Amino acid sequence: SQQGEEDPQALSIQEGENATMNCSYKTSINNLQWYRQNSGRGLVHLILIRSNEREKHSGRLRVTLDTSKKSSSLLITASRAADTASYFCATASNYQLIWGAGTKLIIKP
Amino acid sequence: NAGVTQTPKFQVLKTGQSMTLQCAQDMNHNSMYWYRQDPGMGLRLIYYSASEGTTDKGEVPNGYNVSRLNKREFSLRLESAAPSQTSVYFCASIEQGARGELFFGEGSRLTVL
């Protein structure tokens, strides 16, 4: 069963704007991870935030985690055409990662 | 480093045929996974291997078998392919459990006619 649910399902913005994607989950987690998938390719890890962390930064990425609301958000600042991809959140517990259906992000030049 | 290598990249099968998807990782990871990805559904876990010598069912194991041949290799077998198994299959590995970063192969696109 899907645990993570991303919102929105699709997002189209102008280059240079910020993009925000949200992820909600249902059970307790060890960590939450965000991945990017370019069309026709495998997934690439972007950032991991542990359950005892509230915010994490990596370059133009900012991730927040609210365990009381069981939700996370991924912010991509100053978007570029190369950011066009699908973004997935995955929640980790024990030996498994459970995946959401993804947000498709399109950056318009 | 090659990372995670999957073969074949593309395959077309007829209903009832069998085939094996191969996966190898060169990162000395303990845990390996097979996922399928269908449009609009994200990744669903088929089988995983927490460590060499162990395999466990995931969310959608029916119609599949796996073999953890050694620490490097984890294969997925379809004994009698069905059209419902048309999908993109991804192999992934992680150093241990789900506490770190998963590394993915490029995927194997399977069509069952």
Q: What would you note in describing this structure?
A:
The complex is a heterodimer of chains A (109) and B (113). The radius of gyration of chain A is 13 Å and the shape is globular. In chain A, the strands form 2 sheets. In chain A, strands 2, 4, 5, 9, 10 and 11 form a 6-stranded mixed sheet that branches. The model of chain A has no long low-confidence stretch (mean pLDDT 92). Chain A has strands spanning 5-7, 10-14, 19-24, 31-37, 43-50, 55-58, 61-66, 71-76, 85-93, 96-99, 103-108. The termini of chain A are far apart. By secondary structure, chain A is an all-beta fold. Chain B has 113 residues and is mostly beta strands. Chain B is built from no helices and 11 strands. Chain B has strands spanning 4-7, 10-13, 19-25, 31-37, 43-49, 56-57, 64-68, 74-78, 87-94, 103-104, 108-112. In chain B, the strands form 2 sheets. In chain B, strands 2, 4, 5, 6, 9, 10 and 11 form a 7-stranded mixed sheet that branches. A 4-stranded antiparallel sheet of chain B has the order 1-3-8-7, with no helix packed on it. In chain B, a hairpin with a 6-residue loop joins strand 5 (43-49) and strand 6. The chains are: A mainly beta (109), B mainly beta (113).
